[in-house]
Automatic annotation (TrEMBL):
Similarity field: Belongs to the class-III pyridoxal-phosphate-dependent aminotransferase family. HemL subfamily.
Keyword hit for Membrane: yes
Name this polypeptide is given: glutamate-1-semialdehyde 2,1-aminomutase
UniProt keyword terms in alphabetical order: Isomerase, Membrane, Porphyrin biosynthesis, Pyridoxal phosphate, Transmembrane, Transmembrane helix
Origin: domain of life: Eukaryota
InterPro entries on file: 4pyrrol_synth_GluAld_NH2Trfase, Aminotrans_3, Aminotrans_3_PPA_site, PyrdxlP-dep_Trfase, PyrdxlP-dep_Trfase_major, PyrdxlP-dep_Trfase_small
EC number: 5.4.3.8
Reactions this protein catalyses: (S)-4-amino-5-oxopentanoate = 5-aminolevulinate
GO-annotated biological processes: chlorophyll biosynthetic process; protoporphyrinogen IX biosynthetic process
Length: 503
């Protein structure tokens, strides 16, 4: 009898302690960088909020995940539901996905099917929770599903989701982009980064009256035919199509060079005097992994284009509003002639843009003869999300915070990898980063390909099991956000230390 009494008392004490602990957590004030934001875009879209860089509350996490476990139990990692959903998807969509890298071909294992996102975290349909360093491939710089952005979108939706006609929101976002980005005096909104790069190339050719283009190996500018080119082994190689279905004629005028190799670019200009319309490049490469330019590379490129009457195009679909409020061109102090943007300026909704000097942009129809159009361009929902995202980014301390957490992340990962005996290097600029399983340094795509991709795959799958989601490719940059916390970073580094020992 006494034993039963003791057992009952023990059980009741556990229940009481659990309830007390949950109440205490709810009362506990969240820590993190915070600032007060207030303002108005002047068109009935109020913008006032308290920014917390720890946007995902613990109570939210438990309510969203709906895990059938107690607080004292650890949920076993499983991807059973994701596997079932992906197998079904393969019968419905090519490869089971709508964008190739999502299929996990380069890392192996089972792709995860996402159910929801909030702040710096995401949840799959099996209930697994992850710290997310992909951020929808860059747009989620203030965090996923930001409450202020969602509220603004809800108000905008009351007026409609698409007009196919001008709306005042376009003016507001255009003014914000023009005031932020040094090279842009006029802007044209489109629906994706690919579409922006297609338009800007046509514009460069129309303005210069020339047809040849220089791009860099490993730089991705969307899937339009002229950009799908594999660089050859020579210094100045005529591009060959890198995908079936792309005719040779579409890439014949595309010339390629290794990134960070100014002598290769000089050789191309010398071999094609008076024929090159433009150079297009990612000022910081994000599609070969994270690769920063050498100290004088961008200056030298700017000088060469001016000497050869060619235009300089910065593809800032990734770097725009991420390296700084004015993008890579503000960060490095180099002003191109034309710029492409995407991702962040739509706040997570489909968007793209290209812009530049007024005299060039006035070539675009209906102001000029170069035709480009789009039914959903300037969509009111994308404009709304972009406006509220940029307003948040303009507040003091934003990029200092991104620099702080990203430096902690990259330095911690590299240190943990080296401590475990792995060849690893990494780099970052504010909210963009990357690391390679090679000693480095990595200056171009050839250097990046020296990485141990098999080891990266093992590392990647191990990190998934530890609740960390990186881009599923060694050759993709990663992204942090204002929603990431020091706790997120420390969790990630601790997980990496564990996985590095296992691989």
């Amino acid at each position: 009898m006494a034993a039963h009494v003791v057992l009952y008392l023990y059980i009741y004490s556990l229940i009481f302690f659990s309830i007390f602990k949950q109440k205490k957590k709810k009362k506990k004030k969240k820590k993190g960088m915070a600032g007060s934001f207030a303002g108005s875009v002047g068109i009935g879209l109020p913008c006032s909020t308290k920014l917390s860089h720890t946007t995902t509350s613990r109570s939210f996490r438990f309510s969203r995940v709906k895990m059938a476990v107690t607080l004292d139990e650890k949920k076993k990692f499983t991807l059973k539901k994701s596997e079932e959903a992906f197998n079904a998807a393969k019968e419905l969509m090519p490869g089971g996905v709508n964008s190739p890298v999502r299929a996990f071909k380069s890392v192996g294992g089972q792709p995860i099917i996402i159910d929801s996102v909030k702040g710096s975290h995401m949840w799959d349909i099996d209930g697994n929770e992850y710290v997310d360093y992909v951020g929808s491939w860059g747009p989620a710089i203030i965090g996923h599903a930001d409450d202020e952005v969602l509220a603004a979108l809800a108000e905008t939706m009351k007026k409609g989701t698409s007009f196919g006609a001008p709306c005042l929101l376009e003016n507001v976002l255009a003014e914000m982009v023009i005031s932020a980005v040094p090279s842009i005096e006029m802007v044209r909104f489109v629906n994706s980064g690919t579409e922006a790069c297609m338009g800007v190339l046509r514009l460069a050719r129309a303005f210069t009256g020339k047809e040849k283009l220089i791009k860099f190996e490993g730089c991705y500018h969307g899937h339009a035919d002229p950009f799908l080119v594999k660089a050859g082994s020579g210094v100045a190689t005529l591009g060959l199509p890198d995908s079936p279905g792309v005719p040779k004629a579409a890439t014949y005028e595309t010339l390629t060079a290794p990134f960070n190799d100014i002598s290769a670019v000089e050789s191309i200009f010398n071999a094609n005097k008076g024929e090159i319309a433009a150079i297009i490049l990612e000022p910081v490469v994000g599609n070969s992994g994270f690769i920063a330019p050498k100290p004088d590379f961008l200056n030298a490129i700017r000088k060469l284009t001016k000497e050869n009457d060619a235009l300089l195009i910065f593809d800032e679909v990734m770097t725009g509003f991420r390296l700084s409020y004015g993008g890579a061109q503000e960060y490095f102090g180099i002003t191109p002639d034309l710029t492409t943007l995407g991702k962040i300026i739509g706040g997570g909704l489909p968007v793209g843009a290209y812009g530049g000097r007024r005299e060039i942009m006035e070539m675009v129809a209906p102001a000029g003869p170069m035709y480009q159009a789009g039914t959903l361009s300037g969509n009111p929902l994308a404009m709304t999300a972009g406006i509220h995202t940029l307003k948040r980014l303009k507040e003091p301390g934003t990029y200092e915070y991104l620099d702080k957490i990203t430096s902690e992340l990259v330095e911690g990962l590299v240190a943990a990898g080296k401590k475990a005996g792995h060849a690893i290097c990494g780099g970052y600029i504010n909210g963009m980063f990357g690391f390679f399983f090679t000693d480095g340094p990595v200056y171009n795509f050839e250097d990046a390909k020296k990485s141990d991709t098999a080891k990266f795959g093992r590392f990647y799958r191990g990190m998934l099991e530890q609740g960390v989601y990186f881009a599923p490719s060694q050759f993709e940059a990663g992204f942090t956000s204002l929603a990431h916390t020091s706790e997120d970073i420390q969790h990630t580094i601790a997980a990496a230390e564990k996985v590095f020992k296992q691989i």
